[in-house]
Amino acid sequence: MVVGAGGLGIPVLQYLNAMGVGTLGIVEGDKVELTNLQRQVIYNEKDIGKGKLEVVLERLSSQNSGTVLIGHDTFLTKDNALEILADYDVVVDATDNFPTRYLINDTCVILDKPFVYGALHGFEAQLSVFNYQEGPTYRCLFPTMPSSVEIPDCNINGVLGVIPGIVGSLQALEVVKIITGNDKVLSGQLLIYNGLDQSFLKMNFPLIHENKKIKVLDNYYLDECESTNSISSEEFFELLERSEPIQLVDVRSKEEYEQNHLPNSINIPFEHLETRIKEIDLTRPLYIICQSGIRSRIAQEKLLRVSSKSFIYNILGGLNRYKTLLI
Description:
Layout: E1 2-3, H1 9-19, E2 23-27, H2 52-63, E3 68-72, H3 81-85, E4 91-93, H4 98-111, E5 115-121, E6 124-130, H5 138-141, H6 154-157, H7 162-179, E7 189-194, E8 199-204, E9 230-231, H8 233-241, E10 247-250, H9 254-259, E11 265-267, E12 286-289, H10 294-306, E13 312-315, H11 318-324
Parallel strand pairs: 1-2, 1-4, 2-3, 4-5, 9-13, 10-11, 10-12, 12-13
Antiparallel strand pairs: 5-6, 6-7, 7-8
């Protein structure tokens, strides 16, 4: 099972499919956007606006018709994770956010499944295999989810397009080692790759037995209870359903906004917020949204420093979480 058909998931899927892995499951509920193309190389300009899962299934089928391909046209949530992952032998984390990564870890602990981890930031990347043959889990390395202000946003900091291809290929290699019983699986070790100087570093970390005792899934969204000036995506969805006039600012980049946005929102990119603050009526309630809830939370804090008595609401989980409500 590959969770995510993006920069990491694409090389994983293409190589495992070409090698005849047998059955490949794919969880992906997003659509192809122009900004995906520099690193998600299975897609092209003609695919923009199409569902990623639809495109991937067609391309993989033409690459190897002997593979059993099972598509899950959704995002992984705590409500569907146990059911979706239960039938697979190995889970590959090809996501780009912490909530889903912790959800994958905890689900794999409950189901006793190994999962192959890859993460990216700029020129750097990490790789490991968790929960493999009584080995350490993701929480043995990173016990708790960081807050939104601690997380670098890839839409601001960026990822060089070739890095996901390198790391996704390494993830595919770990999957092959797991299913063939190779004794060199990267369990209990974190591989750190630096693309600038082409260096690899390995560090060992131990199993913390307490992290194997997870029995139920938790909430996996950033800042769920951290601020009274936040609104859940569910509450915001209901607000829009009532067709009440609201002041909504989307702080994503112009390119992201043009690809998709909510009706009646205005686009003030995060980096332009301070110079364009006069476009916002701080005497009225204001709702701020971004892709995942990170930039909007920081934007909220900036605006509250300007006008502490204003009613400014950060939409938790951003558009990523809002999309799950439309499925």
